[in-house]
Amino acid sequence: MVLASMVLAFMVLAFLVLAFIDLVFLVLASLVLAFMVLAFMVLAFLALASLVHAFLVLASLVLAFIVLVFLVLVFLVLASLVLAFLVLTSLVLVFLIRAFLVLAFLVLSSLVLACLVLAFLVLNFFVLASLVLSLVVTPCF
User: Fold this and answer.
1) I need a surface site. Which of 8, 10, 20, 141 has the fewest CB within 10 A?
2) Beta-carbon contacts of residue 107 (< 8 Å; ≥ 6 apart)
3) What keywords is this UniProt entry annotated with (predicted)?
């Protein structure tokens, strides 16, 4: 009976040792599982960060495209303004050249007209002089 109770006590002690070892393995397995969950959470966070980074890269590419389009539009507007300025300048220059030519034509035609008037006056002077001479000289004969 003592032997049976000793065997029973040894069996209980062995069961307690095995339960303790099982508890240690369960705690270690729980810790490993917790670290695996933490690693998966870190991986999920990194994947989310990678997704956000990809979205930010895409957004920066879209913004760069918008800025490029804006710069092209600004360049086209500036080029059209320069072209309009050049056209306006050429039109003004053409108008000024035409005005100068018209003014030169008017001055030259006025000079020609003045010369004609002067020639007419000189001719009238000679006619008047010949008339006066004929009036003065005729009674003498």
Assistant:
1) 141
2) none
3) Membrane, Transmembrane, Transmembrane helix
